[in-house]
Amino acid sequence: MRYLPLAVFAGLSLLWGSEWLLTASLPTQPRLHALAIEYGIAAACLLPWAIRRRFRQCRMRSAAGVVIAGIGILCIPQILIFVASRTLSPTVSLLALALVPVFLAISGQLSISLAVCGFAGVVFLANRSLNISAIQLPWLPLPLAAAAVLAWSLIAAEKQSDVMSLAEALFLQCAAAASLLYIVSPLLEHETITWSAMAATGFILQAVLPVVCGYLLFYWLLGNRGAGPTSLLQWTQPLIVSGESAVLMQPRLLWSDVAGAILIVTAITLAFSNRDIDGGVFFEITRT
Question: 277: buried, middle or exposed (CB in 10 Å: 19+, 13-18, 0-12)?
Answer without folding.
Answer: middle
